[in-house]
């Protein structure tokens, strides 16, 4: 076990805790920009989206912080079929008979860990912590449809592919939509 005795503590005193994302949106987007690769124009667009998302019912966020510095975050919300993300993925899920996953499901909207702090279990802790805090019986998300660390992490937590090659308007790469029962699988 990597972190004996401290489920929510990590090496170098990184702590996983609830995050007031609206108050820390610029720090969070700085992490996302370096982890995922966002330009200044994309950060400005995401900023408005994040602030709107945090007003939605059940929206929640957790951060990984060390010495007052945010080094990772996750946020999400109960799915709403009227939300933009849901309307994009719905036809793809329907084709495979999976569109019931859009009901009673907690959406992981973003999960990012600063590259210097990756591969130490922070991403796993963030996503299991936020899904443990929700009442929904399952979780869905989208990830770029490639063999990335993110896809490997999600599969190890029990997420399975519900649709592949999903195209979001303006996104250059296709995404996979994945779903998992909650609570997420532990090793
Ligand atoms: C995805 C991400 C958040 C994972 O965070 P992390 O803190 O590095 O993840 P963890 O240390 O908890 O890793 C958990 C699992 O991820 C996978 N993983 C992590 N880094 C990996 C790497 N470099 N190569 C292959 N698999 C890797 C492994 O399956 C790992 O399992 P393990 O615990 O058995 O080793 C992080 O890689 C990241 O921010 N990536 C860039 C942004 C991104 O793609 N976000 C997701 C958008 S959908």
UniProtKB/TrEMBL annotation:
InterPro entries: Acyl_CoA_acyltransferase, GNAT_dom. Residues 14-183 form the N-acetyltransferase domain. It comes from the Bacteria. Pfam families: Acetyltransf_7 (PF13508). Transmembrane segments: none annotated. CDD domains: NAT_SF. This is GNAT family N-acetyltransferase.
């Amino acid at each position: 076990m990597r972190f004996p005795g401290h489920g929510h503590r990590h090496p170098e005193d990184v702590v996983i805790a609830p995050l007031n994302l609206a108050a820390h949106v610029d720090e969070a987007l700085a992490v996302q920009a370096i982890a995922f690769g966002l330009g200044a124009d994309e950060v400005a667009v995401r900023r408005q989206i994040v602030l709107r998302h945090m007003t939605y019912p059940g929206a929640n966020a957790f951060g990984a912080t060390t010495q007052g510095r945010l080094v990772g975050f996750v946020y999400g919300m109960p799915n709403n079929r009227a939300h933009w993300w849901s309307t994009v993925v719905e036809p793809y899920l329907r084709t495979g008979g999976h569109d019931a996953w859009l009901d009673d499901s907690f959406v992981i909207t973003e999960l990012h860990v600063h590259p210097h702090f990756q591969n130490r279990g922070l991403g796993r802790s963030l996503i299991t912590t936020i899904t443990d805090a929700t009442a929904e019986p399952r979780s869905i998300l989208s990830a770029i449809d490639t063999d990335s660390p993110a896809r490997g992490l999600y599969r190890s937590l029990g997420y399975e592919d519900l649709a592949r090659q999903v195209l979001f308007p303006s996104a250059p790469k296709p995404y996979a939509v994945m779903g998992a029962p909650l609570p997420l699988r532990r090793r």
